[in-house]
Every structure is written in structure tokens, then in C-alpha cells.
Amino acid sequence: MAEHFHLNTPLLESVGMSKRLGTTVYLKMENSQPSGSFKVRGIGHLCQQLAGQSKGVVCASGGNAGMAAAYVARKMGVPATVVVPSSSPQLVVQRLQDEGAAVKIVGKVWDDANAEALRLADSEGLTFVPPFDHPLLWQGHATMMAEVAASLGAGEKPGAVLLSVGGGGLLCGVIQGLKDVGWMDVPVVAMETVGADCFNAAIKAGKMVTLPDITSEAKCLGAKTVCKQAFEYSQRSDLTVISELVTDRQALQAIQTFLDEERVLVEMACGAALAAVYSGLIHRLQDEGRLPTLLRPLLVIVCGGSSISLDQLTSLKHKLHTET
Ligand code: PLV
Predict the structure, then answer these.
(1) CATH of 11-38+134-322, one of 3.90.79.10, 3.20.20.450, 3.90.650.10, 3.40.50.1100
(2) φ and ψ at residue 99, rounded to 5 degrees
(3) Distance 64 CA to ligand 1 centre (A)
(4) Quick one: which of 52, 185, 236, 242 is 20 to 30 A from 230 by CA?
């Protein structure tokens, strides 16, 4: 079996973003992973540890964790079942099936699908693959930061890391990776969309909270409750985690600008992070003194995502411009 399933992804300099921010912006191109997102790092690692002798894996997903589970399971020769909520577009269901997974559509949002996946794991004896809440996932995601450190070379260190938060697995993995390479003092800007903002809501409340519903179009950020480890990191005084929100419209605008400037199409979950640069939020954080004015290079995790196509982009444009 392969040593691992993920690739060492390119670290690209973005001319357009660098020009906007007045500092170098690096893009960690996780969209170019097999299965289309960073998820294969953590899920590959978890499955190697837990699913070797498995009669099958089951994963509940907004889409991308499922894509990674299906890919890894196919490579391991193990059957995969992916449970998605009805909010996942048909194109995601199709891509999961093309990847060889059996797909079940259960419930309205990810939390509903997850309850069904847990039930199936129990009743069918399948290995449960969580999309964001497991130390093995964070360990797998952490490899991203070791790669960035190697690509940047000695002496160069990012001024901040920009990423998206759904259930918080990527955040936990990146923080773990920052620890591993000795960059604990690097602030992390954690982005969500309004309506898929469980991390921001927990920070505001000062405790873990469960959102009543997911109303954002960034369905892959749509966990109602953030994982406990992510919340705990946000409360620590030796780490800087800045939680911010953008609207769906800003995330959509960011996808389009990114497509134009970088010629890469990513989904809304990723657009949330990109929007921090394009909407001027990073500048605002600098003005407010929450990020240094003379920022060292900004590292953007381009988390990717399969839940997008030109048709899907067009339908999002119609939906978000006519609704309000
Ligand atoms: N998506 C999860 C959880 O959905 C999933 O099942 O695929 N960027 C992309 C493209 C993602 O797919 C996700 C998570 C994230 C960012 C956020 O990662 P997290 O959940 O580890 O914070 C409900």
C-alpha cells in the first residue's frame, strides 16, 4: 500500500492578491489534491490507521470528506458508503458515485447525515470516518505546514495563515502543524460564512454552541457545532486565532475573482477564506491593529472542494443576486 495518499501540493505566489495586500501572498494549492481538497491528508492517515482490516468505511459529509474517504477506500480496496444531506448538490452525488462510493441522502444538513452514518457504522460493523473531529485527521492535515516550511526554506515564515472553518478539523490540523514547525506565534485567520458560523458563534458565546440551522450556501462549512479542540484553541492565550465572517455574496464574488485571476475554480467553502483578501477584511484587521501593518507573507490555504462547476456557479449567482 502507498505510504500516504496525499500529494505534496504547490505553493504558488499570487500576484493579484500580493498587489492588493502590499505583501507577498502564498497559495497552498490543496485544490490539486486527489479527491479535490485537503481532506485526503487527514482521512488518508486515519484510514491507514483504522481501516486496514475493515469490511467497509462510512463517512457523513457535505461532500469533500466523502470524496476523500471514497478515494482512499478505493485505493485500499475497501467499500465506501457516504451519507450526504439533501443540501448537497446532485453534482456531488454524481462525483461520489464516480469515485466508487455508495451514496445515501439523509436529512437536511450534515448533522442529520452524521447521525445516520454513526447508526450504519454500528449496525453494519463499518469503520466510521469522521470529517473533522479526530486527532488522526488533524495529524494528517498538519503535514501541510511541514510542506510549507520546506517550500519557503529557512528563515522565511508566514505573517499569518488564512483558512476556512467548517467543523474545525482544518484549523486544528494547521495549528498542530504550526506547533510541529515551531511557528506557534503565527496568527491564524479563521473564516466562515454568515449562516455556517458555528466557530464564530461559540467564540461569541464563550462556550460551545449548536446553530439552529445552516442557512449559508457554503454547505461544506455547514456543521452546526464546531469540534471541541477548535474551540479550546480559540481560548488559549499562547495562540492567536482570529474568527471572522463574510457573506455568501462575498464568498461567491471571491470564487469569481479567483477564477479570473488564478484560473482555478473552487467551491464556496474555499471562497470564504479567499474573500478575506478580496473583500478588504485583511486590511481592516491591520487597521484595527489585530494583524501587524507590515505583514510578513500571508499564507492562504486554498482548501479546494468538488462542489462546484460552471453550471453550479451560474445557479449560485442567480440565487444570491435575486434573493435579497
Ligand atoms: N467539509 C466537510 C464538512 O462539511 C465535508 O464533509 O466535506 N473547505 C472545504 C472544501 C471543505 O470541504 C471543508 C469541510 C472545509 C473547508 C472546512 O474544514 P473543517 O470541517 O475541517 O473545518 C460539513
Answers:
(1) 3.40.50.1100
(2) -80, -5
(3) 7
(4) 52
